[in-house]
């Protein structure tokens, strides 16, 4: 069963803006996959639909064989989302942000703290767990988003432009962390407009432009064409 199977996915926003125009995409379980494309191509819309934040106009999405429209709870539990924005409370302690997220999935607090500790340690944030989020640097907030996305142990991690505005040292640290997570069995999909990011991290890539998939291939194959 693929991690993700998208068929004919279409999104028309109010005002007749066709953001996605019949997208087909398959991501195999265990893959590290990049959705590459310029600003306005439809990357965030695609992710918004996967995360149940945006309703599709037409088409179907299956996550590990579960239909997004019919089995929304199962699909939500299977996905961890790292959004572009720091959409957590700036006044909440870092540890609580991660643990409370686990609460939405019904994970008991003691269990959630164990998982949060392991993630926050790996991401270099454990010493900051009692600090309010606003005390963190931008790079630390990005890592907090990643810890929060993984606390319920999703099989599929989706990151929307994870390293936008991140300095090179932190970018390398994040890249290594994502490689490790993928090697441990989590399927990873990220959106990016940097070919370099896809090149360093990903096995397979789809290029999206103006709401259509124009290339869907391995990163190796894509690079050999340039
Ligand atoms: P990307 O993430 O690749 O930059 P988006 O998915 O954000 O692309 O946007 C795809 C297209 O849909 C763009 O033309 C954008 O302006 C438009 N769009 C995005 N969100 C909305 C919205 N809420 N209402 C109307 N148009 C939107
Ligand atoms: P202290 O004794 O230092 O005041 P508390 O046990 O009252 O510590 O918890 C303070 C903070 O420690 C909490 O807000 C939370 O961020 C973190 N925390 C709470 N429980 C745990 C736990 N089981 N493991 C790790 N950190 C925890």
TrEMBL record:
<feature type="domain" description="ABC transporter">
    <location>
        <begin position="4"/>
        <end position="226"/>
    </location>
</feature>
<keyword id="KW-0547">Nucleotide-binding</keyword>
<dbReference type="GO" id="GO:0016887">
    <property type="term" value="F:ATP hydrolysis activity"/>
</dbReference>
<protein>
    <submittedName>
        <fullName>ABC-2 type transport system ATP-binding protein</fullName>
    </submittedName>
</protein>
<keyword id="KW-0813">Transport</keyword>
<keyword id="KW-0067">ATP-binding</keyword>
<dbReference type="GO" id="GO:0005524">
    <property type="term" value="F:ATP binding"/>
</dbReference>
